[in-house]
C-alpha cells in the first residue's frame, strides 16, 4: 500500500459551502428540489426534469416508462463496452440486454454492425453513450432509425456539461439522463437526473417517480457523512487512505440489479447549489489538462471528434489503450506505486459479466473485449499538476525501457 500523495482517478469535489447548502436544504422543505429542477429545465431547455437517487435509477425509470408505452417490446440495445450500471438497470426494469460492438475510432456503436440490430421488432430503445464524456453521434443514430416506436435514450451519465458541435449533451435524443455519482462530471455523492421534452413519456415518468420512496432519515445522514468524508479524503494528500481500504471498493464497477431506487433527497438538491459555475470550472480545468495530453498521446478514439469538432473534448478521464494486457498491468503497477491516479475503466465487456453470459450465447464483441483488456484512464481533474502529467506521459512513452526489457 502506498502512503503519500495519491491522485484519485476522477474528482468533482463537493466542497464545504455546498455541504452547508445541503444541510440548510433539509430544513427548507421542497424549495431546493424545485430550484434544482427549475434551473436544470432552464439551462437545458427541456420542459420535464426528474430527480432520483442515481444514474441507474434514472435509467430504470425511463425504461419502465417506455415499457408501459410499448408492452410488446423488451429489447434495450447498448454498447458492449459501457458501465455495468447500464445492464443492471435493464435487468431491474425486467427487459433484455442487447449488445452492439463499439467502433474502432470512438466509444460509440460500430454503426455497420448496428444497422441489422435496429431492425428487430422487439426493440424498445437504443442507448447511445457519451463514454468518458466523449460525444456519441446521436444525430447519425436518429437518421438510422425509421421505426417511430423505437426510442433513443441518451446515456449522458459521464457527460453533464459537455457539448457537441455547440449543442448540449443529454438533450440530443428523446430522453436523456445524467449521473451525479462520485467520479462523474459533477457530484452530489449520488444522484440521477432525467430530462425530456416528451409530454407523454413525462406523464409516465411522473407516475414512476411517485412510486419511489424518499430517503429515510438514516439514508440522509449517511449522505451527509459521506459528503464530509469525501470533502476530506478526496484530496491527493489523503486519498491514499480510502484507496488502501479494500472494503470501500473504490472505483469498482459491479453488476447488481438490486440497487436502491429513491427520489433525490432535499440534502442532495441542496448540495447541487451553484452547479452551473462548478461544472464550468471543472470543465475548464479538465480541458486544459486534456489539451496538453492530446498532442503527446495518440488516442485513436479521439480522432473522429477532433476532426469533426473544432474544440477540445470534455473528458472526465483520459482513455489510453495499451499495446496488450501485460503492458497494461505493468503500467498500472508503476503508475499506482507513484500515486498517479491511473485506473482501468471496466474489467470486461458486458457479455463477459458472469450473471449475463447466458444472454449472449457466446457471441463475440471483439473491440469491446479488447478495450476491457487494454484500456486505462489517466486523471485530468483539478488536482492533477503539470508534473503529474509529465510523469504520466514519460511512463507511457517508454515501452522499451530497460525496466520492462528485463521481464521478458
Ligand atoms: C455511472 C454511469 C451510469 C450510472 O450512474 P450511477 O449514478 O452510478 O448509477 C450509467 N451509465 C454510464 C455510462 C455511467 O458511467
SSE map:
Layout: H1 16-26, H2 31-44, E1 48-52, H3 55-69, E2 75-79, H4 85-92, E3 96-100, H5 111-117, E4 123-126, H6 138-144, E5 151-155, E6 163-164, E7 167-168, E8 175-179, E9 192-196, H7 199-210, H8 217-233, H9 240-243, H10 266-271, H11 275-293, H12 300-308, E10 317-321, H13 325-337, E11 343-344, H14 366-374, E12 375-379, H15 386-396, H16 402-405
Shape: globular
Residue stretches low in confidence (pLDDT < 50, at least 5 long) are 404-408
Strand residue content:
5-15%
Instruction: Please summarize the sheet with the most strands.
Output: 7 strands, mixed
What's the helical proportion of residues? Answer: 40-55%
Overall strand count: 12
Rg (C-alpha, Å):
21 Å
Mean pLDDT score: 93
Secondary-structure-based class equals alpha/beta
Number of helices: 16
Element-by-element helix/strand order: HHEHEHEHEHEEEEEHHHHHHEHEHEHH
**C-alpha termini separation:** 26 Å
Strand neighbour order, sheet with most strands = 1-9-8-5-4-2-3
Ions, cofactors and other ligands present here are:
pyridoxal-5'-phosphate
Q: What quaternary form is this?
A: single chain
Amino acid at each position: 500500500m502506498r502512503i503519500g500523495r495519491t491522485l484519485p482517478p476522477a474528482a468533482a469535489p463537493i466542497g464545504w459551502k455546498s455541504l452547508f447548502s445541503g444541510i440548510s436544504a433539509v430544513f427548507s422543505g421542497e424549495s431546493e428540489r424545485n430550484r434544482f429542477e427549475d434551473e436544470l429545465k432552464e439551462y437545458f431547455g427541456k420542459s420535464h426534469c426528474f430527480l432520483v437517487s442515481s444514474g441507474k435509477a434514472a435509467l430504470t425509470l425511463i425504461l419502465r416508462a417506455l415499457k408501459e408505452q410499448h408492452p410488446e417490446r423488451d429489447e434495450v440495445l447498448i454498447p458492449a463496452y459501457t458501465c455495468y450500471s447500464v445492464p443492471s438497470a435493464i435487468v431491474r426494469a425486467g427487459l433484455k440486454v442487447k449488445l452492439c460492438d463499439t467502433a474502432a475510432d470512438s466509444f460509440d456503436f460500430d454503426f455497420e454492425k448496428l444497422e441489422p440490430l435496429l431492425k428487430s421488432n422487439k426493440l424498445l430503445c437504443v442507448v447511445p453513450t457519451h463514454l468518458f464524456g466523449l460525444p456519441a453521434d446521436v444525430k447519425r443514430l436518429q437518421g438510422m432509425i425509421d421505426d417511430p416506436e423505437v426510442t433513443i435514450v441518451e446515456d449522458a451519465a459521464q457527460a453533464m456539461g459537455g457539448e457537441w458541435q455547440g449543442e448540449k449533451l443529454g438533450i440530443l435524443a428523446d430522453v436523456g439522463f445524467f449521473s451525479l455519482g462520485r467520479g462523474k462530471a459533477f457530484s452530489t455523492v449520488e444522484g440521477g437526473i432525467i430530462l425530456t421534452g416528451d409530454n407523454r413519456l413525462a406523464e409516465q415518468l411522473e407516475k414512476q417517480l411517485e412510486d419511489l420512496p424518499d430517503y429515510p432519515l438514516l439514508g440522509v445522514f449517511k449522505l451527509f457523512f459521506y459528503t464530509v468524508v469525501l470533502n476530506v479524503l478526496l484530496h491527493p494528500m489523503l486519498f491514499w487512505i480510502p484507496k488502501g481500504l479494500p472494503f470501500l471498493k473504490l472505483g469498482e464497477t459491479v453488476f447488481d440489479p438490486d440497487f436502491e431506487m429513491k427520489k433525490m433527497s432535499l440534502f442532495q438538491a441542496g448540495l447541487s447549489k451553484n452547479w452551473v459555475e462548478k461544472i464550468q470550472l471543472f470543465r475548464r480545468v479538465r480541458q486544459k489538462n486534456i489539451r496538453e495530453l492530446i498532442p503527446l498521446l495518440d488516442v485513436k478514439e479521439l480522432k473522429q471528434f477532433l476532426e469533426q469538432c473544432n474544440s477540445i473534448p470534455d473528458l472526465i478521464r483520459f482513455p489510453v489503450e495499451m499495446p496488450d494486457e501485460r503492458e497494461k498491468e505493468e503500467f498500472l503497477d508503476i503508475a499506482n506505486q507513484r500515486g498517479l491516479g491511473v485506473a482501468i475503466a471496466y474489467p470486461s465487456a458486458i457479455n463477459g459479466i458472469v450473471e449475463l453470459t447466458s444472454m449472449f450465447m457466446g457471441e463475440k464483441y471483439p473491440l469491446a473485449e479488447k478495450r476491457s483488456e487494454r484500456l486505462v484512464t489517466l486523471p485530468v481533474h483539478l488536482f492533477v499538476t503539470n508534473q503529474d502529467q509529465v510523469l504520466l506521459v514519460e511512463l507511457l512513452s517508454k515501452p522499451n525501457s530497460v525496466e520492462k526489457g528485463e521481464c521478458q
